[in-house]
Design brief:
This protein has 515 residues and is an alpha/beta fold. The chain is 24% helix and 17% strand. The protein has twelve helices and 20 strands. The strands form five sheets. It has an eight-stranded parallel beta sheet. The two termini are 29 Å apart. It binds 1-deoxynojirimycin (NOJ). 1-deoxynojirimycin binds at residues 59, 62, 99, 155, 207-208, 245, 316-317.
Length: 515
């Protein structure tokens, strides 16, 4: 594992909406450069930038038409290089987004593959042998090409699936993972990664990593494929981080990823924390932490010592953490997010409690996700300091609420969420037992019960974290005596310890040093 991942705290930047410096209504690389000092002040020491490559933007950039060139709306390749330099200058590592599973329909490879005449790209996508035969288990395009065949897509109809083969080919059109075209796709992805790593990027967040090889129910062929990529990384770029959008840490880490995200889809039980009908983190206090704790423990026990699990504050695909929550609730969420193992990922704007905007018009096929992608709220000047463009020409409109949170207001408020988040990050960076790879165990995470209690430790020190999001006093008996424990952090109501008994006032959280 690259050493820097041990205490990396990430900030996710959706480049469209972060900071616009040329008044065209959309964010740019120069805008990110100008805000690196803010990110540093917040305490984050790493960033992930959503795809910023050439694209027709039929899925906000997850439909790439040139993997080697940035989208002109953000700047030039040289500007991105400068961004890397400026970030490194501040000891900030930078991840790019790798989208290996599909391209845009406008990618020249796809255009070539649509041709009736055989060529280098004929088998680089998943085509059946006649237009009326759909590719098994995939959505597809047909009637779009001279070629007789239907082509599998991964996500939207504008995102044809690159062919990495089938784990269990059952039809003549299904290639095996070692078919020359499937291997050529792997080689091309390595070239793409080399290109950006040689420019100075520090690794990749990998899109839809579990699904490159099709018809692979136990993921074994995808695991093998990623192991090969990991060998490539270890040999050529050992300091580069590989982080997967997979949602099954046991498989992703077996595949050689350094860290896997818990996702709002799939088996991770992540939604039960913040985004289900009855989330644990809610004043209602009707959630069930054991759903998450049981699943997380299984994952954790399998990957401990081999790789990390990341619990993000949110991302560009989910409703914002702030939805259905006030600032006090948000503080408790961040106590959790910033004291759990694995690298924390903060989605831009969550640190000030930006809201999900339910009525905003879909942009670049964001649909409901668009409400979580609105412009960053820096201050109270024109367009909240995001852009000098006319407000009607912004990429996505600003949150119209005149009481919307801003960085500027929260910087001067000692009770702000921003202050809580930066204090917690600072504490994490100064406390090895709270960092990414240090030990973890649930101490009290009972079915339908509050509070949640867990322990973090390294060889020398141990900390107990207690969180009671419910709007009522809660108490519990632990399996350890905490007399003499020293409270080093608290937020919200008071938490008292007497022997092995904890009493937590409504909406409270605290961190105690045990030895
Ligand atoms: C996951 C990305 O996070 C999402 O935004 C995108 O639409 C799909 N993958 C397809 O690439």
């Amino acid at each position: 594992m690259p050493k820097w991942l041990d205490n990396a705290v990430f900030y996710e930047i959706y480049p469209q909406s972060f900071h616009d410096t040329n008044a065209d209504g959309i964010g740019d690389f120069e805008g990110i450069i100008q805000k690196l000092d803010y990110i540093k002040m917040l305490g984050c020491n790493a960033i992930w930038i959503n795809p910023c490559f050439e694209s027709p933007f039929n899925d906000a950039g997850y439909d790439i038409s040139d993997y080697y060139k940035v989208a002109p709306r953000y700047g030039t390749n040289d500007d991105l290089k400068r961004l890397l330099k400026e970030a490194h200058h501040r000891n900030i590592h930078v991840l790019f987004d790798l989208v290996p599973g599909h391209t845009s329909i406008e990618h020249p490879w796809f255009r070539e593959s649509m041709k009736n005449e055989q060529n280098e790209y004929t088998h680089r996508y998943i085509w059946t042998d006649n237009t009326w035969e759909p590719p098994l288990g995939l959505s597809y395009l047909r009637g779009v090409s001279d070629r007789d065949g239907a082509c599998g897509v991964n996500y939207y109809s504008t995102q044809p699936a690159l062919n990495y083969g089938y784990a269990n080919p059952t039809r003549p059109y299904m290639k095996s993972p070692d078919h020359p075209a499937a291997l050529a796709n792997r080689d091309e992805m390595k070239n793409i990664m080399r290109f950006w790593m040689d420019m100075g990027c520090d690794g990749f967040r990998v899109d839809m990593a579990a699904t490159l090889i099709k018809n692979d129910p136990d993921r074994s062929e995808n695991i093998k494929l990623w192991q090969e990529f990991r060998e490539f990384f270890d040999k050529e770029y050992p300091d580069c981080a590989m982080i997967s959008e997979w949602g099954e840490p046991q498989n992703a880490i077996a595949g050689g990823f350094h860290m896997d995200f818990l996702l709002h889809v799939g088996p991770a039980a992540y939604t039960s924390l913040f985004r289900s009908e009855n989330p644990f983190f809610s004043k209602a206090g009707t959630g069930d932490i054991s759903v998450f704790a049981n699943q997380y423990s299984k994952f954790y026990n399998t990957v401990d010592g081999k790789g990390l699990i990341c619990i993000p504050s949110g991302n560009h695909d989910m409703h914002r953490l702030r939805e259905n929550r006030d600032i006090d609730d948000m503080k408790l969420c961040f106590v959790f997010l910033l004291t759990m193992p694995g690298s924390p990922f903060i989605y831009y704007g969550d640190e000030i409690g930006m809201k999900y905007l339910p009525h905003v018009k879909s942009k670049e096929k964001g649909y409901h996700r668009t409400g979580s992608r609105s412009p960053m709220q820096w201050d109270n000047t024109q367009n909240t300091g995001f852009s000098k463009a006319d407000s009607g020409s912004l990429y996505i409109p600003i949150d119209p609420d005149e009481n919307r949170p801003t960085v500027k207001d929260q910087l001067s408020d000692n009770n702000s969420l921003l202050k809580t988040v930066s204090d917690l990050i600072r504490m994490r960076l100064e406390t090895p037992a709270l960092q990414n790879c240090a030990g973890f165990r649930f101490v009290y995470a009972q079915e339908n019960k509050y509070p949640l209690v867990y322990e973090r430790s390294d060889g020398d020190n141990s900390y107990i974290i207690i969180i009671n999001p419910a709007n009522r006093q809660e108490s519990c008996i632990l399996d350890i005596e905490l007399d003499g424990a020293l409270q080093i952090y608290s937020v919200g109501g008071q938490i008292e310890i007497a022997g092995n008994k904890i009493t937590a006032k409504p909406v409270s959280a605290a961190i105690f040093k045990v030895n």
